[in-house]
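Support reply, case 0932

Customer input (verbatim):
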Amino acid sequence: MEKQKKSLFVTADGTNYLLPFMLITSLFLIWGFAHALLDVLNKHFQNVLDLSRTKSAWVQVSVYGGYFLAAIPVGMFMRRFGFKKGILLGLSIVAFGAFLFLPATKIHTFTSFLVPLFIIACGLACLETAANPYTTVLGPKESAERRINLSQSFNALGWVFGPLIGSMIILSAEKGSGNEFSALAIPYLGLGIVVLLVGILFFFTKLPEVKEEVSAHGAIEETSNVPAILKPLIKYPHFVFAVVAQFFYVAAQTGINSFFINYVTETIPTISDQRAGYILAIGGMGMFWFGRLSGSFVMKYIPSNKLLSTYAFMNVLLMLLVTLNLGWISVVALFSSYFFMSVMFPTIFALGIKDLGPKTKNAASYLVMAIVGGALFPPLMGYIADTWSMQIGFIGPLVCFMVVMMYGLFGYKQRA
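Our regenerated output:
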């Protein structure tokens, strides 16, 4: 066990980065939890504010739009002041946005909740931009990928706790009960307090500063490849297609997350919103967590692009079952899709930045910005559901997974 710890967190000069790594990993858990709460908010706002599914999707628009708008300013801030200050800034913004939920519960308007969600998203953008490169330097270079995968498993764990706690606290407060708004503040006040405590730990913990570029293999290294620097990113087809694939993947995942509870309760009318939230947390997000844990192991034997295309094809089939409205068969197909979604974001990301050398940091920022698909797609899916049916709305994720499948089949290939 001691040997394994050294291989992960102790460098050749004897420096042990286990504590900093634990703090960095807590960030993965935080933004996973914050994102997963959105899926509960969508249905709760429909219930207590009598919103259509199209309008409730503005929850996702505010969050993923915040990511998109904050990406470039966050990158500029970190290049000037460093990653540690970027993390502290991000934690402060997240806490501020979380505490704004308390006054929002007194105003009782949809906009009053969208504003703190947007602010939280800007803070989370800081955390996500810093966390991945930090995991690569908190130990020996050769174990960088193992550390990233370990941190990502905690991100998936946050996706389990989010809808679980949200269902217990938020969805249990029914319309007219008198606490349908105050219940919204409880998980966010808890999030704000936890984030402040983590920020204090970060403030007093010495962290290595990252000044070099991130290589295609996840390690930090210096480079002087002038031709590669001068070549514009748009001339790397595998990267351009990765941005497109990432856009459609996040669009599909966010659409499924947003209307999971709607679909389950409409397909099986005897299931309450709260119980559907538990199915999302334990069934869907549990599958997501297990898929991410097992994915890194499976990739030792199956090339990542083949695993990506296979998983995307499986989700095309599962979405087809969902659109057919086959009762419990469709519900099982819906939460099973989370297992196959689990490896998509990191795999597309890794294939997209492969062998970009000194351009990796810029390429990574564009791949992060591609999550704007999560802002644009849910309103469209909600409109289809309001106009026709919730089942037909899931044709959208089906098409998105077809794009991801094509990237895994041929779009990942590097060309001169």
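We compared this against your earlier run and they match. Two observations from our side: The radius of gyration is 21 Å. The first helix runs from residue 2 to 9. Please reopen the case if you see a mismatch on your end.
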